[in-house]
């Protein structure tokens, strides 16, 4: 008989950021500040800092599979998020591994394909595999503006465009879509659009003026996964995650010579 853990556990499947601002470093901190035990399956190792990425080394797909199996067969997880999967082989391995989890396990897919500046991060074959194999397994899919454009085939410049894209992406198979406004202009920068096949919900947040925004996408999807692991309903989990990210932006870290990270540990500042 398996005894449930005293705390929920969540799994991040993503890359390592040596600068500590995004990737599994951001995810594990986010899990911890939600009182969720964080586990990880590393997909790649990057050499990066606040100025950019200078090297990326992928792990073998078999190594990614082994990490997922080691965690899920022993600890078990109540929430999963995926981030940078880097190549077609890793995406296939992750899709296969997640297909073995209990169907009720919430999976948040952050489809890291295109940066917030519009630069494509993985090749076309990897994008096709992610779309065909992994996105249909997502309980919540969190594309940014440019990823939503790629997945929907629509140009996105307005709130109505975001809503139309969310509806179209939903037909790729996820249970819900959250089109993020981070790459949008003006007030839409902090506005996301939710669609779960039943209703469109526009989620607004306070705009925080800071250049130190590294890791916001990773942090949001990790916070959603953590809240789902805590048993919250999907839309409630998304709202709570947005609040966490807004506060982390208010306490962003002005470190390094470039774009610093959000301040994941802001809850400690009130103690």
Chain-wise SSE layout:
Elements: E1 9-17, H1 23-32, E2 37-49, E3 52-58, H2 61-74, E4 79-82, H3 88-98, E5 107-109, H4 124-134, E6 140-141, H5 145-152, H6 159-170, E7 177-179, E8 192-195, E9 200-203, H7 216-229, H8 234-250
Parallel strand pairs: 1-2, 1-4, 4-5, 5-6
Antiparallel strand pairs: 2-3, 7-8, 8-9
Structural overview:
With 271 residues, the chain is an alpha/beta fold. The strands form 2 sheets. A 6-stranded mixed beta sheet has the order 3-2-1-4-5-6, with helices on both faces. It is globular, with a radius of gyration of 17 Å. Helix 4 links the parallel strand 5 (107-109) and strand 6. The chain has helices spanning 23-32, 61-74, 88-98, 124-134, 145-152, 159-170, 216-229, 234-250, and strands at 9-17, 37-49, 52-58, 79-82, 107-109, 140-141, 177-179, 192-195, 200-203. Helix 1 runs parallel beside helix 7, helix 2 (61-74) packs parallel to helix 3 (88-98) and helix 5 packs across helix 6 (159-170).
Q: Which stretches of 5+ consecutive residues score pLDDT under 50?
A: none
Summing up helix and strand content along with how strands pair, one would put the structural category as alpha/beta
Counted by DSSP, the helix tally is 8
Q: What is the subunit arrangement here?
A: single chain
Mean pLDDT: 94
Largest sheet: 6 strands, mixed
What Rg do the Cα atoms give?
17 Å
């Amino acid at each position: 008989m398996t005894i449930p853990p005293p705390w929920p556990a969540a799994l991040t499947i993503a890359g390592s950021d040596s600068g500590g601002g995004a990737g599994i470093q951001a995810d594990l901190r986010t899990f911890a500040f939600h009182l969720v035990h964080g586990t990880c399956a590393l997909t790649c190792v990057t050499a990066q800092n606040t100025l950019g990425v200078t090297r990326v080394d992928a792990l073998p797909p078999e190594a990614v599979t082994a990490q997922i199996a080691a965690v899920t067969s022993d600890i078990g997880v109540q929430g999963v998020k995926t981030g940078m999967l880097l190549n077609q082989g890793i995406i296939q391995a992750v899709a296969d591994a997640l297909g073995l989890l209990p169907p009720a396990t919430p999976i948040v897919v952050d489809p890291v394909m295109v940066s917030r500046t519009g630069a494509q991060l993985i090749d076309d074959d990897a994008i096709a595999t992610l779309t065909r194999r992994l996105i249909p397994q997502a309980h919540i899919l969190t594309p940014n503006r440019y990823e939503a454009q790629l997945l929907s085939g629509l140009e996105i410049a307005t709130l109505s465009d975001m809503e139309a894209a969310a509806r179209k992406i939903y037909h790729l198979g996820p249970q819900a879509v959250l089109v993020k406004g981070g790459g949008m202009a003006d007030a839409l920068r902090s506005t996301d659009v939710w669609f779960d096949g039943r209703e469109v919900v526009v989620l607004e947040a306070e705009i925080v003026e800071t250049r130190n925004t590294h890791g916001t996408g990773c942090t949001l999807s990790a916070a959603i996964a953590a809240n789902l692991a805590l048993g919250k309903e999907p839309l409630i989990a998304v709202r709570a995650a947005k609040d966490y990210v807004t506060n982390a932006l208010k306490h962003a870290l002005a470190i390094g010579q470039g774009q610093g990270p959000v301040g994941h540990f802001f809850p400690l500042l009130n103690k």
